[in-house]
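Lab notebook, bench 4. The sequencing result for the construct came back, and we need a structural model before the next group meeting so we can plan mutations. Quick request posted to the team channel:

Model the 3D structure of this chain.
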Amino acid sequence: MSARGTFAGTIVGISRTLADAMVYEDLAHRPGLLQSLDPRARLVGLLSLVLAVTLAHRLSAILLLLAAGALLARLSHVGILLLGKRVWLPVLVFSAIVALPAVFLTPGSPAFSIDALAFEATHQGLNSAALLISRVEAAATLTTLLVVTTPWMHILNALRSFRVPQEIVLILAMTHRYVFLLAETATQMFQSRQSRTVGSLDRATQRHVTTRTAGVLLSKSMELSGEVFLAMQARGFRGNARALVGCRLRAKDFLGMAAFLAFATLCVWAGRS
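Done. Here's the predicted structure in token form:
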């Protein structure tokens, strides 16, 4: 592979990540069902559904929660195609790879066999694999809905209102802010390297260049963290974070939380084994 192809692929990947973040920010400000609720109501409601996914033991209950997530996405103007490309398909591939051994290793009544490989699948193994895949799909869908329909600072503000330690909230806020800055810095570094590269590089040279680039990026991140800390102290920061976005629960927020909790409880009850 040429250096141009390697660097171009890296730049495209980073740019796609940044573009996805901008799309998600736009989705969070669209009019929709979830967007109309207070961030605390969204946090409680969607996390209660995620908890129901982990507690349910019947495939029908988990699929019902997955269908509820798809319906919420539709009502919140989150495209099904976006969920399919960014969540459902990647999660399906990953979870299927993890769940595949259970199909043949779980003891039980035989379902089918692969004579060429001397493998025999069982009904219990198929059921276990289906449970794992559907559970991961449902949980990923619901958590993605929380992220794409709620601005990040609103999520952090909701976490603080639930007495999450301030240190954790600050770490999450700083990480979210500067991971994009470092991604942009990496893009600029790769573009600079690409503009100065003529011809093709062998694999050893490519690895050497990639390692040096990663080292420089790490050094820049360490230097940036020190500068940011000194700048925050110079502006009066003494460990107390103040939220600029106020939240106020309304009647429909309490109604929404009650509906989420009731549906989650129903799914857990229906999903008992």
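DSSP finds nine helices and two strands in the chain.
Will bring this to the meeting.
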